[in-house]
Amino acid sequence: MDVLQKLLAIEEIKQLKARYFRGMDTKDAALLASCFAPDASADFRGATTDPRTGINATPSSTGEVLQGGEAIVATITGALAKLQTVHHGCCPEIEITGEDTANGIWAMVDYLRMPPDSRVAEMDGWGHYIESYRRIEGKWKIQTIRLPRLRVDVRTRS
Amino acid sequence: MDVLQKLLAIEEIKQLKARYFRGMDTKDAALLASCFAPDASADFRGATTDPRTGINATPSSTGEVLQGGEAIVATITGALAKLQTVHHGCCPEIEITGEDTANGIWAMVDYLRMPPDSRVAEMDGWGHYIESYRRIEGKWKIQTIRLPRLRVDVRTRS
Amino acid sequence: MDVLQKLLAIEEIKQLKARYFRGMDTKDAALLASCFAPDASADFRGATTDPRTGINATPSSTGEVLQGGEAIVATITGALAKLQTVHHGCCPEIEITGEDTANGIWAMVDYLRMPPDSRVAEMDGWGHYIESYRRIEGKWKIQTIRLPRLRVDVRTRS
Question: What pLDDT, in 10s, does the model give residues C60-99?
Fold first, then answer.
């Protein structure tokens, strides 16, 4: 791929990831679904557990590796349906690895606020998304995603 | 517009928005003013109100749609003059819609700290800027801006 | 430099800064070291001091201007070794100033968590990195870096 096409692909992947975040936080399931390859996989194991207490803020979505774009979206939207969420990503390192393949790393933070009847009140988390992408019929999609964490703070209600 | 010119315009608009944030937070009114079209409009209605309490952290700037670049800047700088502010934007989705027009969405967070004599102590807010841009004499400017929120936390002094 | 080469250089510098952040936060000293020119300088004086109390969260790294890439990395990694850190940057304003030189401004936030035996518990800081870059044998490096702050909050243990 020439330099111009690489820069265009990098920008397209940045906007893909922006739609992923926005789809989650505005609860736009169709927008979120448009971000994943049909055979995508998502590994969020451990990503919502405070290492100091072992408390998992969203156990329903982080128990195992999720397989398939539809299952990923159903699991995420189910886990976050009653939560107020903010996910921000920055400092993308996108590497184009082939005509239709790429890898990426994003620094990230998310803030989850739980409903009043939940034992967990809030979770704040920081880490890096480690991802790969694939271009399918001209559109970049998330092929694999995982989220090693730097820090997770879970606050329970007193 | 060809791909190269589109990528250049996207980068220029990203830097325009960076100057907007930096102008606000460093209280550089001239830098902030350089970001707006003369006939810009800004709709920050509701953007600084905590939905849980109805308390508005900066009522002087968010009561109505602001009309005109000069009025927008005067209102923002007046409202924030005594405040310590941090505004961060990420994950821009910039779409070039014509030779000199574009739309954009930015995920954002702002942290406002009020002076000691204020009833409100701090506001933290998260949401998306929904914007349009226009290129005037070769320079991209903000034409319209609004700020639907995901979450606003206002803390008052006890 | 033509427009395409400028856009490529801007993207390369963005990814350089991303590696700088990631190297610090994942404690990858080799990655961090790869980001600096041999004769780089770093001025973090005042950057970790809460102006309200005068308490400096990381006095070992911010007393004087650091000279040389190796010394900068040794000082940073020494100061942060026992800390859990998150550094995020956004809204880069990269200006290519010559064939192999550039300037940049980044909005930033960092969150430092100290070990349990430290008097200081946490530091949160916001500000702007003001930087210059130089391309050495085809690779962009940080030549100078300083960090004027908008706000620094240092919390001590009660």
Answer: 888 899 999 999 999 999 999 999 999 999 999 999 999 9
How many contacts (CB atoms, under 8 Å) link A and C? 49
What are residue A41's phi and psi, to 5 degrees?
-135, 150
10 Å CB burial of residue A12 (0-12, 13-18, 19+) is middle
Contact C105 B25 (CB under 8 A): no
For B45-78, how does the pLDDT look when each residue is reduced to its tens digit (9 = 90+)?
999 999 999 999 999 888 899 999 999 999 999 9
CB C88 to CB A90 under 8 A? yes
Q: To the nearest 10°, the Cα dihedral for C50, C51, C56, C61? A: 100
- Taking contacts as CB-CB distances below 8 angstroms, the residues of chain A near B91 are 14, 17-18, 21-22, 88-90
Contact B31, C128 (CB under 8 A): no
Give C111's contacts in chain A (Cβ within 8 Å). 126, 151
Residue B74 structural domain: 3-156
CB contact under 8 A, B18 and C105: yes
CATH code of the domain covering residue B141? 3.10.450.50
Give the mutation candidate from A83, A87, A88, A112 for the B interface (greatest B CB count, under 10 A).
A88
How many independent structural domains does chain B possess?
1
Interface B:C, Cβ pairs < 8 A:
49
C-alpha to C-alpha distance for A154 and A53, rounded to whole angstroms: 8
A15-32 per-position pLDDT tens digit: 999 999 999 999 999 999
User: In this complex, do B109 and A86 lie within 8 Å of one another by their Cβ atoms?
Assistant: yes
**Structure pTM?**
0.98
Beta bridge partners of A144: A41, A132
Query: What is residue C62's predicted lDDT score, i.e. its pLDDT?
Result: 87
User: Are A105 and C25 an interchain contact pair (Cβ–Cβ within 8 Å)?
Assistant: no
Overall average pLDDT of the A128-135 stretch: 98
